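Re: your question from the hallway

Yes, I did run it. Sequences:
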Amino acid sequence: MCEAEAVSLQACISVVGALECVVRRCVGPDGGSVLFTKDTGEIVITRHGQRILTMLHLDHPMARMVLECVCAHDRITADGSKSFILLLAALLRGIRDSANRRHNASWSPATNRKLANQLLAFCWKELDDIIAHDVVPYASFLFGFGGYRLEGGVLPALVEGYVAGRVATGQAEILTPLLCEFYKKVSHEQDSTTVEPITFLHSNFPLLYAKVSGLPAGCSQVVKGLVLACDWSVWREAEGPVKALVICESLDKPLVAIGDSMSICFQQDWLLRSESAMKQRLARLLCLQVSVVLSSVKQPECVLEWARLNGVCVLECCDSEQLDLLCEFNAAEMLSVQPMLRVTTLTFYSRLQLGGCRYAHLGVSPNGSVHIHTLVLCAPASGPLEQSVCVSQGVFTMLQHLCLSVLRMREQSNDTVSLSDSHQYQIERDSDSLTHDQPHMSTTLPDQSQSSSLDQSQGSIKDLWAGILKAGGVLPVGGAFEVLLHHSLLHCGNHGDLESRSLLAKAILSVPRSLHSHRPRYFLQQQAQLMSKLQLLKQGHTLSELRSGSDLRFGLGPAGTGSLSVEPICSKHQLVMSVLQCVNRLLCVGTILHTRTPLYRTLTASTEDSEEEDV
Amino acid sequence: MALNADEEDFEWEPPTEAEMKVIQARRERQDKISKLMGDYLLKGYKMLGECCELCGTILLQDKQKKNYCVACQELDSDVDKDNPALNAQAALSQVRERQLAIQPHPQANGAPPTEPPLSITGLPRPEHCEGAASGLRAPPPSQPPTVPTPSGSPAFLLPTGTTLQTASPPAGPPPTHPALMHAEEAVLHKLRWATQELQQAVSVETSIQLCSLIRTCADSLRSLRELRLS
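Structure:
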C-alpha cells in the first residue's frame, strides 16, 4: 500500500535549511573544507558543494530532488552549487514570510502552485530582460573605456576567481598560472579568436591530464603532446616523425570480420599453421613501415619479440579513449584489409619520468587552432590531487559556458535580419522548458543553422577575451552581481510581476551575506561604494585614475596581489534561473507517495523486486 | 495583488506583537533544528523521508538504524512549555494574566493590590507540581493573606529527601518577599544537588559531608520559613 503524505512549505524549508547549514561553512575562499571518512578508510577532503551534497545520505524525496537540481546545474556551469542551496533557502523563507503576512485561511496548496508558476513565468520572461538591460551594461561600463583595467588579462582574472574559492591559497597560486599556460599552449596564443580550443579542452579534459602523487604541487607542468599512463614494453630511442599503428585487439587473434563463419579443424600441424599465419601478419605490418605500435590490450610475447628484433616500439594497455582521440585528431587511416588497425603519424615519441613512474610521451601535430598538450598535476597526496583535477575540469567547463553564452548573446544582438530566427530560438527555448524536466538553459550546442552564423561572427572577433570583457560578460567576484540584480529588481521598471521581483530581490543578497558573514559591515560599505561608482560611470564620468580595481575586490582573493578576480555573469544568471525552476518543482509537489520498493536504486536481482511489490 | 484578490484581504489585520514574538520564537527554533540536523548529516546520519509523530520534524537515522528526532531529544519542547499542567512558569504566567485581567475591579475598591501572585504558595516547589498546585489555587488578589499551613512545606524538611515531592493540600497564599523566595529557591536547589550527589557517592567521607550539607539546607529552609511567617 502506498502512504500519502501532504507536503507543506515548512517541510521544504526544513530540508533545505538542513542542507544550507551543511554548506554554509564552506562558502568562499575563507570557508572550510569537509573531511569525509568512508568505512573503507578512504578520506575525502572537499569544498565542492555538489560533492559534499552527494556524499550525504539523503533519503527524503525533496532532498533528493534538490540534489538532482544541484547536479544538473553543476553539469552545465561547474559553479555555484553552494550558492544554489543558499539562494534556494532564502527564497523559500521569503515565500513563507509573505505567506505569514497574509491571512492564514487563504493560503492553500493552490496558492503555492500559483506562486510557483508566477516565479517560473518571471524566470522565463522577465529575468533575461532585467539582466540584459540593467546588469550587463554596468559590467561593460565597469571594464570598458574609462573603467577598470584587468592586469594580466581577463583569462587569469576569471581563472583566479574560480580557483580561489575552491582550493587552498597555496594551491590556487600554483594552479591559476598553470591553467592559463595550459590554455595558451593549447590554443597557441596567437589564435585566441575562436572557441574551438575551449570546447576541445572542455570535452577532452579527462584525456589531457596526468596525475602524479607524491610530488610537491609546484612540480606541476604543461608538456607538449599526449602523455599516456603506461610505460613502453619495447623501447628504442628514435627521433623525428614516425608512423604508428593503433590496434585494439591482440595480434594473435584471428582477425575475422564479425558475421563470417569460421570452421575449426584440428590438425597435427595446427601450431605451425597458426604461427605462420602470425608471421604473415607481422610481415605485412613491417611493410607499412610502422615504428610504433600502440595497443589497448596486452600483446603476446611473440609480438614483443618480433618488435625487439625489428626495431619497433610497443606500448601496451593504453587507454582506448586516448587512442581514439589521437586517431580522430590526426585523422588516422583505417586499414581496409584488417578493420581493427589504424595508422597515424606522431611527431615524436619518448619516455617521461614523473615522480616514481615512467610514462609514454607522444607528440601530435596540431589540428587547426588546437595543439595537444597535457597538464601534469602533482600533489603530495591523493586528496589535494583530486581537488586539483576537479577544479581544473571545472575551469574549462565554466569558460566554455561563458564563451558560448557571450557568443549567443552577440549573435542575437547582431542578428538584425532575422527577427523570425530569434523568435524561432525563443520558441525552441520555451518548448525546451516545457518538455525537459531538468532545469537548464537550452545549452544544446547550436544546431547547424546557428553554428554557421557563429563561425561568421567568430571571424570578426579580434580577441575572444577582450570581446567578452567589452560585451559585459564578467563582473568582480564577491557579490557585485547580486548587488546589481537587487538594485535592478527593486528600482528599474514598475511593470511586470512585482511580487516575484521583491521576493527575489530580498533573497539574492543572502549569497554575498554568507560569503562575508564574518564582516557584514565591510560588505555593506563595498555595496554602497559599488553603486556610487556605477552611478558615476553611467553618467559618463571616467574614473580619475585607472586603478587595478583592488578596492572592488570585496576583500577576496589572494592577499597582496592587488589583482581583481572576476566571475562570469552567465553562470550567475544560470544559477538564478536554476533556483527559480527548482522552487517551482518544490512548490508544485502536492503529495509524496511512499512506496515499498526503492525506486532510485538499481536492484541487482529482478526476483527481489517481484517479492517486494505488494499492492 | 493578483494572488489574493479576495474579500478576506480587506479583513486582514497585521499580526499583533505577541503573535510576532511567537512567530519569531518559532523561527528561531526552526533554525536551531536545521543547524542540528545539518551537523548530524555531516556526522553520517541519514535523512529519512518520515516525520516525527510528536513534533513533525524530519527524522534522522544513525548507522545502527535507530531513528532520532532532533527536536524531541535535544531541544525543549515548543508546545510543552506553554502547557500549564507541565510547566510552572506557564502556569504562573497564566494565573498572572487572569488576575491582571480582573485587577481593575479590586483597585477601584481601594484595596491595595498585593504582591503579584507569583508567590502564591510561598515556597518554590518542584516545577511540575508547583504549577499544577498554583494553577488550581488562583485566588483574587484582594483577599487578605492567610497564614499558610505548616503542611505546605513538609517535603523540604526531609533530610534524606528524594527529588520527587508531592504537592501539599491547598493552603492560603501569603505574600512573600522576593529576596526570601530567591533564598529559598537557592537553598532548595543546593539540597536537590546534594541529594543527587549522595545517591552517587561511594566514599564514606563524602557521604558524611553531603548529609551534613543536607541538614544545613533543611535548617536554612526552616529559618527562612519562620522568617517569612513572622
